């Protein structure tokens, strides 16, 4: 028996979580001096509203006691465990989980407790988790699941844009001049993830040009796109997500999509507005 675990940065739709019985461990959201469990006590709509009201929202790691309790519980029930975590370059949760997994693995030698660094976030991470869950359901061994998804972490692409760079600037990810230009001149940054880190790619002016360019990049980087499931996540802008889906269908013959709103973790760091697409190179 194998149990697949991840964290709430994966932005998986509830129907996929329930379908494959994936255990999603919550990050902690700090708002107005109170702590909330991501996706349990608070949702991204609450975060977007707080940001619009000018409130600061902070996040912290999945608590160590939660990681330990979940892994220990499953291991004691005879489950092999696989935790697939948010990029270690963007959060310390994965490194904490790896240490705890090693401790639980030593306590229960009859089972295997393993971790994989997705080097990803949002639906890029979520699609890696879903693939692991599908493989588990189809009878794959833990070793084979780990081998396949480690390969996928090297192929998954994130191409996204946000409406205001100040939240990324606050986290120390861009220079002040870039944040000012993005806010004042309405330049839309195109960002991607390389080796688990968010990096600027280029700039576009206006939503139409932005979406066309995102589709161009998907075309340039994607492999066999018409047979992939494409992830699209948005920051309280479902219309833009649907526009992007339609363009991908028309131009690149993409057929299968998972569309979801980003969760609390990324909402706090990216702010309101924006859209991203996730696929395999």
Structure summarized in a few sentences:
It comes from Natranaerobius thermophilus (strain ATCC BAA-1301 / DSM 18059 / JW/NM-WN-LF). With 281 residues, this protein is α/β, with parallel strands linked by helices.
Plain-language structure description:
The protein has 281 residues and is of the alpha/beta class. The protein has two domains: 117 residues, Rossmann fold (3-Layer(aba) Sandwich); 125 residues, Hypothetical Protein Tm841, Chain: A,domain 3. Helices cover 44% and strands 27% of the residues. It contains eleven helices and 13 strands. The chain has a six-stranded mixed β-sheet, sandwiched between helices. β6, α4 and β7 form a beta-alpha-beta unit. The longest helix has 16 residues. The chain is globular. The chain starts with a strand and ends with a strand.
Kindly name the structural category: alpha/beta
- Count of DSSP-assigned helices: 11
* Uncertain stretches of 5 or more adjacent residues: none
Task: Give the number of DSSP strands.
Answer: 13
Shape: globular
Main sheet?
Answer: 6 strands, mixed
Strand order of the largest sheet: 10-9-8-13-11-12
CATH topology (fold) name of the largest domain: Hypothetical Protein Tm841, Chain: A,domain 3
Instruction: Tell me the count of domains.
Output: 2
Overall pLDDT confidence: 92
Helical amount: 40-55%
| Terminal CA distance | 31 Å
Strand content: 25-35%
| CATH architecture descriptor text of the largest domain | 2-Layer Sandwich
Radius of gyration: 19 Å
Oligomeric organization of the protein chains: single chain
SSE sequence, one letter per element: EHEEEHEHEHEHHEHHEEHEHEHE
Which CATH first-tier class of the largest domain would you pick?
Alpha Beta
Protein name: DegV family protein
GO molecular function: lipid binding
Keywords: Lipid-binding, Membrane, Transmembrane, Transmembrane helix
Organism: Natranaerobius thermophilus (strain ATCC BAA-1301 / DSM 18059 / JW/NM-WN-LF)
């Amino acid at each position: 028996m194998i149990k697949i675990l991840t964290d709430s940065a994966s932005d998986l739709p509830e129907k996929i979580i329930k379908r494959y019985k994936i255990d999603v461990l919550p990050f902690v959201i700090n708002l107005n001096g109170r702590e909330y469990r991501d996706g349990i006590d608070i949702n991204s709509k609450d975060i977007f509203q707080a940001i619009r009201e000018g409130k600061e929202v902070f996040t912290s790691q999945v608590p160590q006691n939660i990681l330990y309790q979940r892994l220990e519980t499953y291991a004691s029930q005879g489950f092999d465990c696989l935790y697939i975590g948010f990029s270690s370059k963007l959060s310390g949760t994965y490194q904490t989980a790896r240490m705890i997994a090693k401790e639980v693995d030593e306590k229960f030698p009859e089972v295997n407790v393993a971790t994989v660094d997705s080097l990803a976030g949002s639906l890029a991470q979520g699609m890696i988790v879903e693939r692991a869950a599908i493989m588990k359901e189809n009878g794959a061994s833990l070793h084979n699941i780990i081998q396949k998804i480690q390969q996928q972490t090297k192929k998954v692409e994130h191409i996204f844009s946000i409406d205001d760079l100040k939240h990324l600037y606050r986290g120390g990810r861009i220079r002040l001049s870039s944040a000012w230009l993005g806010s004042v001149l309405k330049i839309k940054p195109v960002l991607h993830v390389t080796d688990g880190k968010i990096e600027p790619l280029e700039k576009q002016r206006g939503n139409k040009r932005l979406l066309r360019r995102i589709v161009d990049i998907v075309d340039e980087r994607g492999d066999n796109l018409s047979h992939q499931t494409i992830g699209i996540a948005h920051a309280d802008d479902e219309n833009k997500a649907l526009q992007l889906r339609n363009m991908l269908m028309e131009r690149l013959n993409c057929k299968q999509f998972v569309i979801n709103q980003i969760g609390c973790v990324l909402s706090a760091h990216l702010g309101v507005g924006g859209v991203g697409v996730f696929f395999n190179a």
